[in-house]
């Protein structure tokens, strides 16, 4: 399967709002943005959430690359 076909198939089943919608109203802390850059945080970061601030821990990849889910589509 080629990259373009794989991305199209993933887009048919991946819905970043699925869990967000299911958890809404439960009091669970959720980030304000549904998609985030992965590997872009090098230190502890306080970010705005839907109901409160959220602490985002370092998530750097060992090769220093950053994954942008919106750019992958």
Features of the shown structure:
73 residues; alpha+beta; two-stranded antiparallel ribbon; single chain; 3 helices; 30% helix
Tell me the strand order in the biggest sheet: 1-2
Low-pLDDT parts are: none
Radius of gyration: 15 Å
- Please outline the major beta sheet: 2 strands, antiparallel
Tell me the structural class.
alpha+beta
Distinct helical segment count = 3
Q: What helical percentage do the residues reach?
A: 25-40%
Mean pLDDT comes to 78
Globular, elongated, flat, extended or rod-shaped: what is the shape? flat
Helix-strand pattern: HHEEH
- In total, the number of strands is 2
Strand proportion: 5-15%
How far apart the termini lie comes to 16 Å
Description of the molecule:
- There is one protein chain.
- Helices cover 30% and strands 11% of the residues.
- The protein is built from 3 helices and 2 strands.
- A two-stranded antiparallel ribbon has the order 1-2.
- The longest helix is centred in the first third of the chain and has 11 residues, at 3-13.
- The mean pLDDT is 78.
């Amino acid at each position: 399967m080629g990259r373009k076909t794989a991305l199209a198939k993933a887009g048919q089943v991946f819905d970043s709002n699925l869990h967000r919608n299911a958890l809404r109203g439960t009091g669970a802390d959720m980030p304000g943005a549904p998609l985030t850059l992965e590997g872009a945080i090098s230190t502890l970061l306080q970010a705005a959430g839907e109901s409160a601030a959220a602490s985002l821990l370092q998530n750097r990849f060992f090769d220093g690359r950053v994954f942008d889910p919106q750019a992958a589509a």
